[in-house]
Design goal:
- The structure is a single chain.
- α7 (159-166) packs across α9.
- This protein has helices at 21-32, 34-37, 56-69, 88-97, 102-105, 131-134, 159-166, 169-177, 185-197, 225-239, 267-270, 313-317, 321-331, 346-355, 386-389; strands at 6-11, 43-48, 73-78, 115-120, 126-130, 138-144, 200-208, 214-221, 247-256, 285-294, 310-312, 341-343, 367-370, 378-382, 395-397.
- With 413 residues, the protein is an alpha/beta fold.
């Protein structure tokens, strides 16, 4: 089987990294008046999710240190809905893979899955919160503000959604998702109910730039969540990395995983998995999506595999089917766990995608290969795309073409 010639591509992503994230956190703590808010407070639940966020473990360690300096006794609560197989041990393991545990952040992890109903919102959604968090004297929610893999609108992923679904464990996530991904307004309603019924709620909102480096660290009082998060979402979306093309015949993704995106591969990058809001156009599309591997940090959760057309035996063998099933049953999006065509190795997977194009001339086929949907500063593209990419601002192309290479086991190089 012949494979297309490829070129190495480098693109300029939006860069706005914080010089000192710890300094930004300290300034935010002072601005929000945490010393006054937490005066006399002993137990503080620090809610943490399942995403791989730049420098999060270090920020959590500093936050814990500042809370202890105020006389508080902080502990970590996994706030990730049904992730980690919806078990206490599984959610602790997710945090541990992210480098978050008592040794690294200086606070114990209390992963109990027990959640308490807080009532029903005006829109008919029942809100839940972890019992361990409700029994604390205050809750600090730490999360990245970013586009969601399915929800659209001014509130997507962030501190509000962590309150609405993540902190409610599997009960909270299931309660939100049963209303469908068109009901994004319920995120704010459910978060409002948690803020009203829970102890004092504060948030640490994080924003990453196009290179996935921390760009904003803001400490918010609960009353500020609704106004400030949509503003931070606009900032995040303005820097969100994408493939600088409208469409290709084949997109090859070396690895997917829950530590990369909620559905393994960011739909704003692949063009698969999220319906554009209103008449918003799809900014990228691919005729065939090939995914080759599953990250160790995903813990076997292959949610999102259903958006691919072809995969490999090594990815399939790495799937924890129970963890994946629990995740998609909770969200209601069962199709995300569907298994695509399984090839014996990487070379066979790419060959299958090429052959499915009905004998298009190889020199005309357009292919992009990325490591994953978080890292788009460098990627490969077929030589057929050189004329198109040459006219894209901020894109640099290697002078020489190279072949698509595989080792003797068929693993892509």
């Amino acid at each position: 089987m012949n494979f297309p010639s490829m070129i190495n591509v480098r693109q300029k992503l939006e860069k706005a990294p914080l010089r000192d994230p710890g300094e930004a956190l300290t300034a935010g703590i002072e601005r929000a008046g945490l010393d006054k808010t937490l005066a006399g407070v002993r137990r503080v639940a620090v809610a943490v999710g399942s995403r791989n966020i730049d420098g999060e473990a270090g920020l959590l360690a500093l936050l814990v240190e500042r809370l202890r300096a105020l006389g508080c006794d902080p502990f970590i609560v996994p706030a990730m809905g049904s992730h980690g197989g919806a078990t206490a041990g599984g959610q602790s393991a997710v945090l541990d893979r992210l480098g978050i545990n008592e040794e690294t952040v200086g606070a114990p992890v209390e992963p109990s899955m027990e959640a308490v109903s807080l009532g029903t919102t005006p829109g008919g959604a029942e809100a839940f919160a972890a019992r361990s968090a409700l029994q604390a004297d205050a809750i600090v929610v730490v999360n990245r503000v970013a586009p969601h893999t399915a929800y659209s609108g001014p509130v997507q992923s962030g501190v509000l959604k962590m309150l609405a679904a993540g902190l409610g464990k599997r009960d909270g996530a299931r309660s939100l998702h049963k209303h469908g991904f068109e009901a994004a307004h319920l995120i704010g309603e459910m978060a409002d109910l948690v803020i009203a019924k829970a102890p004092a709620v504060l948030g640490v909102a994080l924003v990453e730039d196009g290179e996935k480096k921390l760009s904003r660290v803001e400490v918010l009082r609960g009353t500020e969540f609704r106004q400030r998060e949509p503003e931070l979402l606009e900032v995040a979306m303005s820097m969100h990395p994408r493939i600088p093309l409208e469409s290709v015949d084949i997109l090859i993704v070396d690895e997917m995983g829950k530590d990369i995106s909620g559905i393994g591969m960011d739909p704003l990058v692949t063009g698969r998995g999220k319906r554009p809001a209103g008449d918003e156009p799809v900014k990228f599309s691919t005729g065939r999506l090939v995914v080759l591997g599953l990250t160790p940090g995903s813990g076997g959760n292959a949610t999102g595999i259903g958006h691919a057309d072809v995969t490999t035996r090594r990815l399939y063998d790495a799937i924890d089917h129970e963890a994946t099933r629990l995740n998609v049953i909770t969200s209601g999006a069962l199709y995300r766990a569907r298994i695509p065509v399984v090839a014996g190795n990487d070379a066979e997977a790419v060959a299958m995608a090429l052959e499915s194009l009905r004998e298009r001339p190889l020199e005309e086929v357009t292919v992009v290969r990325i490591r994953n949907t978080r890292e788009l500063g460098e990627f490969q593209a077929s030589a057929s795309l050189r004329p198109v990419l040459a006219g894209v601002p901020g894109v640099e192309l290697a002078v020489e073409d190279s072949g698509m290479e595989f080792d003797r086991t068929g693993r892509i190089l």
